[in-house]
From TrEMBL:
<keyword id="KW-0597">Phosphoprotein</keyword>
<dbReference type="InterPro" id="IPR050428">
    <property type="entry name" value="TCS_sensor_his_kinase"/>
</dbReference>
<keyword id="KW-0472">Membrane</keyword>
<dbReference type="InterPro" id="IPR003594">
    <property type="entry name" value="HATPase_dom"/>
</dbReference>
<dbReference type="InterPro" id="IPR036890">
    <property type="entry name" value="HATPase_C_sf"/>
</dbReference>
<keyword id="KW-1133">Transmembrane helix</keyword>
<dbReference type="GO" id="GO:0005886">
    <property type="term" value="C:plasma membrane"/>
</dbReference>
<protein>
    <recommendedName>
        <fullName>histidine kinase</fullName>
        <ecNumber>2.7.13.3</ecNumber>
    </recommendedName>
</protein>
<dbReference type="InterPro" id="IPR004358">
    <property type="entry name" value="Sig_transdc_His_kin-like_C"/>
</dbReference>
<feature type="domain" description="Histidine kinase">
    <location>
        <begin position="254"/>
        <end position="453"/>
    </location>
</feature>
<dbReference type="InterPro" id="IPR005467">
    <property type="entry name" value="His_kinase_dom"/>
</dbReference>
<dbReference type="Pfam" id="PF02518">
    <property type="entry name" value="HATPase_c"/>
</dbReference>
<keyword id="KW-0418">Kinase</keyword>
<dbReference type="Pfam" id="PF00512">
    <property type="entry name" value="HisKA"/>
</dbReference>
<keyword id="KW-0812">Transmembrane</keyword>
<keyword id="KW-0808">Transferase</keyword>
<dbReference type="InterPro" id="IPR003661">
    <property type="entry name" value="HisK_dim/P_dom"/>
</dbReference>
Length: 453
């Protein structure tokens, strides 16, 4: 069912898209055009019908007038005939004699006589006839005497056969209008999709621009002229971002070079202090300063990481290396550290930075895990995932995004951490196209995951 809906939605585009807006506007314009066409068609039908009826009434009156014979009874007509007495026929006739009164026929009202009396010989004119009928009168001389003939018929709008004929004509013409509109609509939708296809190309180009391809730009060759300035402005913004990105990488490299030497000198200077109490009190501060600096350098390296530096990384081997490096510290704290899961999981990445990210997760788990508990590095495959599980107090749901911000230490800070470790984890994961997640562990504790795509 979803597949069918997707096929039906394809011609009009997704909700909120420019393609759908244009298609809806075209459809609305076509519907308005169809409505106006049908309205004009009905109007023209009645207008031509009235013109034709007027000509027909004139012809009927003229035919009766030329057949008048004053020497014959009823002027040569049967006064009781349907066309003179009844109202059911298509036409009804009344003949007015020289005195101005009806001689044959039943429409002998003062209002009619007054109108007919004003007519000149040979002049045909429309006469106002009651009872939703329409009349045309024509006067002429028959044997030197004035005779006038009034021919009347029901108005087209009240004549059922006429209305049926009109409705049939409208239906027939409307079918062609709808067919033409459908063809126009299909052509318009096709033109819209063809015109917007260049935007899809630009979208794909924009998706390819990133840290691994900072030199990419949007092509404006096939874009509509109205969108070329927008593409140029976006390219200018990309160029500025690229310059800032390069400046950031250069800054990180310069800081690493310029600060390491003074820190080493500071460390050596502290070791030469003769006052043992002062020397021992300063050493932790210097060590902490060195750790914070190294973490900031790691964070900058992760943000500036390029895929060109990637190679094949075996996650299980990486997990064992990190576990081995942290095993002694875990044992001293009365905690256990284990590596479980798949032995063959591999990813393309930077082994050094991935090791730093995993080490930060392990160090964080050991810092919060209670004594006697086990911290587990679980390696998974298809897709590759690194999971670090502990039995600590867990992370509140409202803090699970904030803990990955630089210098955020959570509601229950533990140890002498700087609050940069998890920010490094997120930056390294982002550089590898991976997602970092934290969730509750069944039975208590937390599970931090780096899920590769």
């Amino acid at each position: 069912m979803r597949h069918v809906l997707a096929i039906l939605k394809a011609p009009v585009g997704a909700a909120g898209s420019l393609q759908r807006k244009l298609t809806v506007n075209i459809l609305a314009a076509l519907l308005l055009t169809i409505l106006m066409s049908v309205t004009v068609l009905i109007f023209e039908f009645f207008e031509h019908l009235e013109e034709n009826q007027e000509e027909a009434l004139y012809g009927e009156a003229k035919e009766i007038l030329v057949q008048i014979d004053p020497d014959l009874p009823g002027l040569g007509f049967d006064p009781q005939a349907l066309r003179f007495r009844g109202v059911e026929g298509a036409y009804r006739y009344t003949i007015f004699g020289p005195a101005g009164h009806a001689v044959v026929g039943g429409e002998d009202m003062a209002t009619l006589r007054a109108q007919i009396a004003q007519l000149a010989l040979g002049q045909a004119a429309e006469i106002a006839v009651p009872n939703a009928r329409r009349g045309v009168a024509l006067c002429g001389l028959i044997k030197a005497e004035r005779y006038c003939v009034l021919a009347s018929a029901y108005l087209p709008s009240t004549d059922r056969p006429v209305l049926d004929t009109m409705w049939h004509e409208v239906q027939e013409q409307t079918q062609w209008i709808l067919l033409g509109s459908l063809i126009v609509f299909a052509a318009a939708v096709g033109a819209v999709r063809l015109s917007l296809s260049s935007l899809d190309k630009v979208r794909r180009e924009a998706l390819e621009i990133g840290p691994d391809a900072p030199d990419g730009r949007l092509s404006a060759d096939d874009l509509p002229a109205e969108l070329v300035p927008l593409a140029q402005a976006v390219n200018t913004a990309f160029a500025r971002l690229q310059q800032g990105y390069k400046a950031q990488r250069a800054f990180a490299a310069n800081v690493a070079h310029e600060v390491r030497t003074p820190l080493a000198v500071l460390h050596s200077s502290v070791d030469t202090i003769h006052d043992a109490a002062l020397r021992e009190s300063l050493k932790p501060d210097v060590t902490r300063l060195e750790a914070i600096f190294e973490q900031l350098v790691d964070l900058a390296r992760a943000d500036a990481l390029m895929p060109e530096a990637f190679s094949k990384v075996e996650l299980c081997k990486l997990a064992r290396q990190v576990s081995g490096a942290r095993a002694m510290a875990a044992l001293k704290a009365g905690k256990m550290l284990a590596v479980t899961g798949a032995d063959t999981a591999t990813v393309a990445g930077h082994e050094g930075l991935l090791a730093i990210a995993l080490d930060n997760l392990v160090r964080n788990a050991l810092a919060h895990a209670p004594a006697g508990s086990e911290v587990e590095i679980d390696v998974r495959d298809n897709p590759p995932v690194l999971r670090v599980q502990d039995r600590g107090p867990g992370v509140a749901a409202e803090d699970r995004d904030a803990i990955f911000e630089p210098f955020h230490r959570g509601r229950r800070p533990s140890g002498d951490g700087s609050g940069i470790g998890l920010a490094i984890v997120r930056a390294v994961a982002a550089a590898h196209g991976a997602d970092v997640q934290v969730e509750d562990r069944p039975g208590g504790g937390s599970v931090f995951s780096i899920a590769f795509r």
